[in-house]
Amino acid sequence: MHILTPLLPTEKEVIWEKINHKSDLFIEEEEEDKINQGNDNYSLDTVAYLNHIKEENCKFLAQSNQIISQLDTLLAIHSSVTSQTQDFQSESNTLIDNLHFLQELYSSLVDKFKLFNNLDSIVKKLNTANNSKLVLKPSFSQLLQDLDTSIEFINDPQHANYKDISVYKSRFNQCLVRALSLIRNYITSYIRSIESKNKEQLVNAKPITIDAIINVNFVNDLSHITNLFTQLYIRSTDHASLLEDVYNQYFHSRQSLLSQFIINPHIDSVSFNEDLLTLSTTQIKYFSKLVDKEFEIFKSIFFSPLIDNSINATVLQPHLESLLDPLYYLLRNKILRESSIDKLSQLITFLIDEPPIFLPILQDAQSRLLFQLQKNEPKPYSRTGKELIITSNSNKNKIYPPIETSISVLETVNGLLPKPVFDDITASFIDAILKSFPHASPSDLQWSLYILHSLLELQKHVNSWEILYLNRDTQIEWHVTRPWSVKHEFNDCRLKLQLKIDELIQSFAQQVDDNDVRRTWTLCKESVGSDHAAKLMDFIAKVKGSDWRDEMMHILQTENETDAENVDEEIEVSDLDD
């Protein structure tokens, strides 16, 4: 309780009355009086004890103050030592960083000097390389790696300012060329030795062992050069000629072995009198196996998973094609003597599905087929008088002979020639057909219907072939009074055909009697059949007008009803028979 103003006696009593508990700090007044009046020993001893305790506490307090003073001194000393230690650590870190930098600089300089110092040892090894098998030693692989590292270092733009860097660049490149040349020399020399070895074995070899010597033994003998070739391949970007020398030697040796002991004996045994298709299929299958086997041999020797092999695949193709030269020559002579369009078409059908390596044969066959097609274009036709003789319903489908022949030929070669070539030859055939029609009198209605039927049949096939070719005729016009000029005319064969059909329909429509619809319909059916007859009557109706159309519709309706009745009668008769 905080007392802010003096209290009256009565107020004190009220306050003391409110205190209802005793405290160790308070004593009764009676006890206090006894203590003040008393002189007993207990009290004196207590006072003496308390005085002693007080003295001891004072001593302890003095000692504590002394210790605190000493601790303050030690704390100050500690702070000073800590500050000095931090300064020392900072200076030590700086020295350590400098030491690390100098160590790294030293290591870098050692590595750089090592790159340059290696030059002398590399030059010494390469210049004293009298042993042809040096390239097979493990140390040679390490030498190539050292050269790669050194060349990469000196080609770095950051090192362009080094003293005599251009000199070192030239010398390291010379060493690399020398090392790769040693690989080239070893591989080419070894391939030649294997070729000579195989030829010696093949001279007296039995036929059944020839394949094993040329293929199996050859691969086994050259299997160890794959790693060497890979080392040359991965460094061939700037040294392609060395790689090319290896390829040339390999292809020359393989060509020599295969030509002398396999291909030429096989060609000599072939009978040229065989049928074109039989000869071609047999020989192409034989040479396909030969090419596949040659590819596998090359792959086993030169292909490696460590390289992209793109150059390998590129250079192999001409070699494989050269192996097929005897086949090309053999079949070309046979193809040039073939005059049958059907046989040429059969050969082309077979060749279309063959690999692209046989494309020259396909092109020869297509060229020969095109020549025969041009040679057999429709010629002007002379009527025999038998074209319009109808002895049965099947003869209604007969068409103009040049058109029938042309359709048959073009259907045969469709898809066997390049699309522009086929379109061109089709356009030529159509032009020749349109020029081949013999002259007919205006009153010869049956002949006109016959030609119309034939042209409509031709048009149906032309539309199915989807001709996209526009024939361009180029002519030079000479003038007396002005300079000559070149004139280009684009002719659509489909349009020409349609115009010719329209012309014949118009002519036929003008020839028929306007009032004789039924006779015209009967004539059309007998000449060209019901399907084309209906189309022709429809075309004529466009020329004759609505009266002709109405009469024609009436005739068709009557015939349809009659046909339906006949069908019903046939069904009734069939039911009775059952």
UniProtKB/TrEMBL annotation:
Membrane-topology descriptor: Peripheral membrane protein
Assigned GO CC terms: cis-Golgi network; Golgi membrane; Golgi transport complex
Domain named Conserved oligomeric Golgi complex subunit 3 N-terminal: residues: 48-192
Keywords: Golgi apparatus, Membrane, Protein transport, Transport
The keyword Membrane is assigned to this record: yes
Entry keyword annotation includes rRNA-binding: no
One GO BP: autophagy
Coiled coil regions in record: none
A Pfam entry, by short name: COG3_N
Main location: Golgi
Span of domain Conserved oligomeric Golgi complex subunit 3 C-terminal: 217-477
Database matches in InterPro entries: COG3_C, COG3_N, COG_su3
Compartments, record wording: Golgi apparatus membrane
Family of the protein in this entry: Belongs to the COG3 family.
Protein name: Conserved oligomeric Golgi complex subunit 3
